[in-house]
Specification:
Helices cover 37% and strands 24% of the residues. The chain folds into two domains: 2-173, Ribosomal Protein S5, domain 2; 180-342, Alpha-Beta Plaits (2-Layer Sandwich), CATH 3.30.70.890. By secondary structure, the chain is an alpha+beta fold. α2 (109-124) packs across α4 (153-160) and α6 packs antiparallel against α7. It contains nine helices and twelve strands. The mean pLDDT is 94. β6 (165-170) and β7 (175-180) form a beta hairpin.
Length: 361
């Protein structure tokens, strides 16, 4: 049996910019999906999950339409199909999937599954793809599995992660520049308790609005727009201002300007809330609770419509800030939030033979 891991991700800043050829600043996190696989000879890819119900079985040649399946089976079928289209031989496997990436939390649980499974499938077939092409394949698998036109940030973060560093990604060139994280601050992730699935949100609508704005301006993408051009266009205004915040946040990280970084996170949330309208009252309440509890800055992370908030906090204060903010949110909304401090993790890859990964509580 061979085992492969792929990390989830939390995005410090730069949401809804990736599909606009913009900039993002995520980090791969120490929550991951692990796929353990044995080669078989029955012609099928069979997968079972420790967290998700049911068994998935699809032909190893990618001939099944992912839309014909339900639930997490769509992702399995999508990865098998896109790899087959890129020349992967139809090698069969039997796989067990386990994950410590919370589902529906905006932390890229689906991308972690796609990348870990893709690595296992490639290994079984003695087939390989360069990291960027593997990320593109997994992005395409998500598109055909869910119908959601996601950007490439999640999959690219999984295959290029660096321990102890965030990743400044140019989503036009796909250049990745690691930015070391300071030791004096912690990255706190708090799940609001509001789960969401992107195929049930207005994600595709927001992407279409951005494309329409770029077309109206005569541009290939909003990456090329100036602040003056989008002053009266809220959706586009968010993208342009968010790109500027990502670059400023990267510069602040490099010089240890923690206060400035926190202000940029909070400004990014305000833009997502007001201009892009992808926040929720519960997430807004959580951001305010974290800031009032002592976070340097906080913002929703991921596509929005629920899910998680990321906050920058003093390392010694992280547990206290999380406890006070969660208690306040419970009192105000009745939700059951959860929190953890995350570390930046290395890129996806094989686990050493015989290694075991203990699930997080």
């Amino acid at each position: 049996m061979r085992a492969f891991r792929a990390p989830g991700r939390v995005n410090l800043i730069g949401d809804h910019t990736d599909y606009n050829d913009g900039f993002v600043l995520p980090l791969a996190i120490d929550r991951e999906c692990v796929v353990r696989a044995d080669p078989t000879t029955d012609g099928n890819v069979v997968a079972r999950s420790k967290q998700l119900a049911g068994e998935v079985s699809v032909p190893a040649d990618g001939s099944v339409d992912p839309a014909a399946l339900t639930g997490w089976g769509r992702y399995v079928a999508g990865v098998v199909r896109v790899l087959a289209e890129r020349g992967r031989p139809a090698a069969a496997i039997e796989a067990t999937v386990s994950s410590t990436v919370p589902a529906g939390a905006g932390l890229s649980s689906s991308a972690a599954l796609e990348v870990a499974l893709a690595l296992a499938l490639c290994d079984a077939a003695s087939f390989s793809l360069p990291p960027v092409e593997l990320a593109r394949a997994c992005q395409e698998a998500e598109h055909i599995a869910t119908g959601v036109p996601c950007g490439i940030m999640d999959q690219l973060t999984a295959v290029t992660g660096h321990a102890d560093a965030a990743l400044l990604i140019d989503c036009r060139t796909l250049a990745v520049d690691p930015v070391p994280l300071p030791q004096g601050v912690a990255v706190l992730v708090v799940h609001s308790g509001v789960t969401r699935s992107l195929d049930e949100t207005r994600y595709a609508e927001r992407r279409a609005e951005c494309e329409e704005a770029a077309t109206a301006l005569g541009l290939a993408s909003l990456r090329d727009a100036s602040p003056d051009q989008v002053r009266a266009m809220p959706r586009a205004r968010h993208v342009v201002s968010e790109n500027a915040r990502v670059l400023a946040a990267s510069a602040a990280l490099r010089v240890g300007a923690h206060g400035m970084l926190g202000e940029l996170l909070s400004a990014g949330h305000a833009s997502l809330r007001d201009d892009f309208e992808v926040s929720t009252p519960e997430v807004d309440a959580l951001v305010t609770a974290l800031e009032d509890a002592g976070a340097l800055g906080a913002r929703l992370t991921g596509a929005g419509f629920g899910g998680s908030v990321v906050a920058l906090v003093g390392r010694r204060d992280a547990e206290d800030v999380a406890a006070r903010a969660m208690a306040r949110l419970r009192g105000e909304t009745g939700l059951k939030p959860s929190a953890f401090v995350c570390r930046a993790a290395a890129a996806a890859g094989p686990l050493p033979e015989g290694s075991e990964r203990r699930d997080h509580p």
